[in-house]
Amino acid sequence: MNTRRNFLAAAGLLAAGAASRNALATAPEPHHHDSADTAPPLHPGSGRPYNPVVTLNGWSLPFRMKNGVKEFHLVAEPVEREIAPGMIARLWGYNGSSPGPTIEAVEGDRVRLFVTNKLPEHTTVHWHGLILPNGMDGVGGLTQPQIKPGQTFVYEFVLHNSGTFMYHPHADEMVQMAMGAMGLFIVHPRNPRQMAVHRDYAFLINAYDIDPGSSVPKVNTMLDFNLWTWNSRAFPGIAPLVARTGERVRIRMGNLTMTNHPIHLHGHVFEVAGTDGGWVPRTARWPEVTVDIAVGQMRAIEFIADNPGDWAFHCHKSHHTMNAMGHSVPTMIGVQQDDLTPALQKLLPDYMAMGSSGMAEMAEMDMPLPDNTLPMMTGRGPYGSVEMGGMFSVLKVRDKLPAASTEQLAWAGLDAFGWYAMPSGTQAHTVPTDTAPAAPRDPHAPKPAAEAGARVLQVQKPTHLHGH
Ligand SMILES: [Cu+2]
C-alpha cells in the first residue's frame, strides 16, 4: 500500500486528484445566455490560439485558465427556447439555452468541466467522440454515480484529438435528449493554420414532439416527432449562413435526433472533411451535394463558396422541412369538398376546405392557429412564401459583404441581409405556354383515357388517371 502510494505520488497523480477536489470548491461562475440569436464568435483571450466557430442560433461558453487548466462550468437546467418567432418551448438545456453552449478548446489542452445539476432529476454528461479516461466518460451507473439534483461533479481530461464532438446526458437519456439537453464540443487543431477556413459554422440537428398549442415536448415519442430543428430552431427561425465569394466554408453538423438526415446544399459541391472520428484525409474525400447524417453522427462539410446567390440548405426528407401543423393533415388531392364545406362550417366555424389541389395554399392562408405553434410551411422570400419550415436555412454568397461586418453577418436574420440581386437573364421566367415546343410522347404508351373514349373520373387533380 505504502509502495503504491509512493509510486502514485511520484507520478504526480495524487497531487492532481487533490487539485481537482480543491478546484471543486471554486468552480467558475457559470455564464448564462438565453437569447436564440447567433452570438459573435468567441475569440480566446487566453490559452492556445484558435479560430473560433460560429454556432447557428447559439453561443460558445467562456472559460478561465487556472494553473494551465481550461475551466468551464455547465449548469444543466430547465430553459425556455424560442423555436421560431411565435413559439416558445419549455426544454432542458445548459446555462440558459438549448442546445447548451458550444465548448471550444484546443488539442493538447487539459480541460476541467464542472457540471451542476439544476434539473429535477439526476443527470450526467457524456463527451461524445472524445478519447478520454473511462471514468470521465459520463455514463451514469457504468462509469460514475449519477449527479443528483443540486450536486456538482467535475470532469477533467486532456484533449488528444481535434475535431467536432458533442455532449449530452447518459442518464434517463431518452427523456433528457427529447427535452433538448445537448451541446457541441469543438476541439481545434494545435496549429491554427491547420484545417483553417474562412467561415466555420456549427449546429446540432435535433427534434421535438410538441403538440400544437402546448410547449413541453412529449418525451416518450420514439419516431414521430413534429418539430425538426437545427439547434432547437425551425425555419424561418434558423439564422442564414453567409460567405463572401471565393471563401472556404466549413459546416459542422451533429445529429442527436432518432433518425437520419440527408442534408442538401444547393449551388455548390462539397466534401466531407470530418466525422466524429476526426479529419478525413484529403485523398479519401469525394464530391457530394447531399450528406446523410446518421443518428449519433457528426459530419463536417467543406466547400468553396464560388456561386453567388441565396442558396437553399436543408434536410432532404421533405417532412423535415415542415412544422407541426402539417403532420396530421389527410391527403385531399382530387377530393371535391365544395358541397361539404358549408355543412362542416355549421359545426366548425373555422373549418376551411383545403388541399384539393395540393397543400401550397396552406402556406399562404390565414388559418387560425392555436397559441404557441408555427404554421407548417412559411418564411417569406422576395417572390412570396418559401413554403418551408423545420430544417431549412439559406446560404448567402455575395461578392461583397458590408465592410466591418464580415464576421457578424452570420447572425443577421434571414431578411436583415437582403436578397440576392440576380443578374438579368439568369432567372427562370414565364413565357406564353404555346411558345414551348410540343412535349415528345412515347408512341408505344397507352393513349390517355379521354382520347380513348373511356369513362373519365371527374376529379380536380390529377387531370387523368395512370393506367395501372
Ligand atoms: Cu431530416
Task: Count up the domains.
Answer: 2
Q: From the 3D structure, determine the CATH topology of the largest domain.
A: Immunoglobulin-like
CATH class of the largest domain: Mainly Beta
List the total number of helices.
5
Q: Which ligands are bound?
A: copper (II) ion
Largest sheet, in brief, is: 8 strands, mixed
CATH architecture of the largest domain: Sandwich
Overall pLDDT score: 83
Q: Strand-and-helix sequence, N→C?
A: HHEEEEEEEEEHEEEEEEEEEEEEHHEEE
Strand content: 25-35%
Q: Regions with pLDDT < 50 over 5+ consecutive residues?
A: 1-20, 458-468
First and last CA, distance: 82 Å
Approximate helicity band: under 10%
Q: What overall geometry do the principal axes of the alpha carbons give? A: globular
Region (Disordered): 26-49, 428-452
Organism: Thiomonas bhubaneswarensis
Subcellular location: Periplasm
Pfam families: Cu-oxidase_2 (PF07731), Cu-oxidase_3 (PF07732)
Structural features, described:
Keywords: Capsid protein, Cell cycle, Cell division, Metal-binding, Oxidoreductase, Signal, Virion. Residues 26-49, 428-452 are annotated as: Disordered. It is a single chain. The protein has 468 residues and is mainly beta. The protein folds into two domains: 1-28; 31-422, Sandwich (Immunoglobulin-like). It has helices spanning 2-10, 13-24, 173-178, 340-347, 361-364; strands spanning 54-55, 64-66, 69-84, 87-94, 103-106, 110-117, 126-128, 152-158, 163-168, 183-188, 199-208, 227-230, 241-244, 248-255, 261-265, 270-275, 278-279, 287-288, 290-293, 298-304, 309-315, 378-381, 384-388, 392-398. The strands form five sheets. Strands 1, 11, 12, 14, 16, 17, 18 and 20 form an eight-stranded mixed β-sheet that branches. Strands 2, 3, 4, 6 and 8 form a five-stranded mixed β-sheet that branches. A hairpin with a 2-residue loop joins β2 and β3. The chain is globular, with a radius of gyration of 26 Å. The chain binds copper (II) ion (CU). Residues 228, 261, 315, 317, 320, 391 line the site of copper (II) ion.
